[in-house]
């Protein structure tokens, strides 16, 4: 749309430049017509005058072009008004020098009306036409020697005045139509037709602008990513027409819940985004919570058929520059936070955080290593969204479990990092294998079983993480010795590995996976107990279940 507006403005400028050129040329012709060659005593004076007029015209055009190039996007109305005043002054001078009420060049005032109408629109064009009309009438009354002369020139000027007013009115109507049409095109290009919110394209443009402004002003900016919970279920039961009605209603709620300068857009499907300029993370969380609570408290048709008997929304929050310094980093961070909110019971607001950022103060990780690890995780995310979300949730379960067990601060750091890195080796696996929906073949399962070793090899070369190598390598060992890769058993398996094994398995059972159906929380707990002493450390299983009870409000 910006490209269209730029092209349109350029065409309008070209039209105005032609009109101004013709006007000044007519003014120059009018001035030269007053010169009687036979009465010229000093040709040098005439030449100097002609050069002066020519220089004035060149200077004027240079100023017009410079103004258009540097200030057209700022809509400097004052400069345009001054320009109209100059054109009016030139007209008055020409009329007075070419006979006043008898001047044959009064008609050039129509160019001023044309220029004023195109630059300003209806209101200013009518005012300009009225000023010119009043000026013509005053000249007739002041410079006519008698009533007969006044009558002749006044009648002629009435025709000219009528032409000015009609031209101003008709042309301003056309300009208004063109402006409204342009606004409609802009609205259609920027607004989602169904919800009335801004669309994805406009969101991308504004996010780039907000980040640039925030960088220049050294301010925060935040992003809310929102997704309607179980919306597919609602559409399947009630039909897409009712689904569209829900989208419209939520669009209205979003517009009413944000502040005046915030930008709300439909990202696609049932996803929405809000850009919050000059907003820190805490304030963004408050706004997200306000939106979540408002939607939860609003009644939607047939919401009782939803899994939670309510229509709810999950919200992910990211903040510039803390969570990303580019548009894509900020969007990915908010999307990751939303993904975490969706998998932790939905109907909640989650702010983005990275385990690597969280432990920065406790463990030296240089930027190169941090970027490398984030790049690996990002690659996994692109290949397999489940693996990435699974990693985030295993980190959270392991963190809670470490706190519940009363581990040392060093062990708490190690368990979070190991949980974060435990599946990093999956980056070597093909995308079609990670996302396969049917049962894996023996050969495919053998490739999957290689990922703990690959994960260990990747982090072993990074000095800050080398002590985590055995924890990561053995997180798929079984307590009865039938796991992989080295068939360790019992307490020969590192303690932190045994913790991650339980967290890993619990999340795998309670999440949607390409090749498995999701179990309920109670079903997963029963599965843990059934496999205590075979797959899992029996003592840790019961403590993990107790931990789940403690954090039940967060799951």
TrEMBL record:
Keywords: Membrane, Transmembrane, Transmembrane helix. InterPro entries: GGDEF_dom (IPR000160), HD/PDEase_dom (IPR003607), HD_domain (IPR006674), HD_GYP_dom (IPR037522), Nucleotide_cyclase (IPR029787), Rev_trsase/Diguanyl_cyclase (IPR043128). SMART domains: GGDEF, HDc. Gene3D superfamilies: 3.30.70.270, Hypothetical protein af1432. Residues 219-354 form the GGDEF domain. Residues 365-555 form the HD-GYP domain. PROSITE patterns: GGDEF (PS50887), HD (PS51831), HD_GYP (PS51832). SUPFAM superfamilies: HD-domain/PDEase-like (SSF109604), Nucleotide cyclase (SSF55073). It holds the Pfam family GGDEF. Residues 387-509 form the HD domain. The chain crosses the membrane at residues 12-32, 44-66, 78-97, 127-146, 158-177. NCBIfam families: GGDEF (TIGR00254). PANTHER family: CYCLIC DI-GMP PHOSPHODIESTERASE PA4108 (PTHR43155:SF2), CYCLIC DI-GMP PHOSPHODIESTERASE PA4108-RELATED (PTHR43155). This is Diguanylate cyclase (GGDEF) domain-containing protein.
């Amino acid at each position: 749309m910006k490209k269209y507006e730029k092209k349109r403005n350029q065409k309008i400028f070209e039209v105005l430049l032609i009109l101004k050129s013709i006007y000044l040329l007519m003014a120059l012709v009018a001035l030269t017509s007053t010169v009687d060659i036979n009465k010229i005593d000093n040709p040098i004076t005439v030449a100097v005058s002609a050069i002066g007029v020519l220089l004035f015209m060149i200077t004027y055009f240079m100023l017009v072009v410079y103004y258009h190039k540097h200030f057209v996007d700022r809509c400097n109305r004052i400069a345009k008004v001054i320009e109209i005043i100059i054109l009016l002054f030139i007209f008055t001078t020409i009329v007075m020098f070419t006979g006043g009420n008898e001047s044959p060049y009064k008609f050039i005032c129509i160019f001023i009306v044309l220029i004023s109408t195109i630059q300003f629109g209806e209101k200013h064009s009518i005012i300009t036409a009225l000023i010119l009309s009043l000026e013509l009438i005053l000249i007739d009354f002041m410079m006519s020697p008698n009533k007969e002369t006044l009558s002749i020139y006044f009648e002629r000027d009435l025709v000219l005045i009528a032409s000015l007013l009609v031209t101003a009115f008709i042309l301003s109507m056309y300009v208004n139509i063109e402006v409204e049409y342009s606004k409609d095109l802009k609205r259609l290009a920027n607004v989602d037709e169904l919800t009335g919110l801004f669309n994805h394209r406009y969101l991308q443009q504004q996010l780039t602008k907000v980040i640039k402004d925030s960088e220049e002003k050294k301010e925060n900016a935040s992003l809310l990513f929102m997704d309607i919970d179980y919306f597919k279920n609602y559409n399947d039961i009630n039909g897409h027409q009712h689904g569209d009605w829900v989208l419209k209603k939520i669009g209205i709620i979003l517009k009413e819940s944000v502040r005046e300068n915030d930008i709300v857009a439909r990202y696609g499907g049932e996803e929405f985004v809000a850009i919050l300029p000059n907003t820190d993370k805490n304030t963004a969380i408050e706004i997200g919570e306000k939106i979540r609570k408002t939607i939860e408290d609003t009644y939607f048709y047939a919401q009782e058929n939803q899994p939670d008997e309510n229509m709810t929304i999950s919200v992910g929050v990211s903040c510039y520059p803390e969570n990303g310094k580019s548009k894509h980093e900020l969007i990915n961070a908010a999307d990751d936070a939303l993904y975490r909110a969706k998998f932790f019971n939905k109907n909640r607001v989650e702010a983005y955080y990275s385990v690597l950022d969280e432990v920065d103060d406790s463990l030296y990780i240089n930027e190169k290593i941090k970027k490398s690890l984030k790049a690996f995780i990002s690659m996994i995310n692109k290949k397999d969204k489940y693996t990435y979300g699974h990693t985030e949730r295993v980190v959270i379960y392991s963190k809670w479990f470490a706190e519940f067990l009363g581990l040392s601060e060093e062990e708490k750091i190690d368990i979070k990092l190991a949980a974060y890195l435990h599946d990093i080796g999956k980056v070597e696996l093909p995308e079609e294998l990670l996302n396969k929906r049917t049962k894996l073949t023996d050969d495919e399962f053998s490739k999957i079983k290689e990922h703990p070793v690959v994960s260990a090899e990747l982090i072993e070369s990074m000095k800050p993480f080398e002590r985590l190598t055995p924890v990561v390598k053995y997180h798929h060992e079984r307590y009865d010795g039938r796991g992989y890769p080295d068939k360790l058993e019992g307490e020969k398996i590192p303690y932190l590995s045994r913790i991650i094994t339980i967290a890993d398995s619990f999340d795998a059972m309670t999440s949607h996976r390409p090749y498995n159906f999701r179990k309920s929380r109670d079903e997963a707990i029963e599965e843990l107990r059934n496999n205590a002493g075979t797959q899992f450390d029996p003592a840790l299983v019961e403590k993990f279940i107790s931990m789940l009870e403690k954090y039940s409000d967060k799951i």
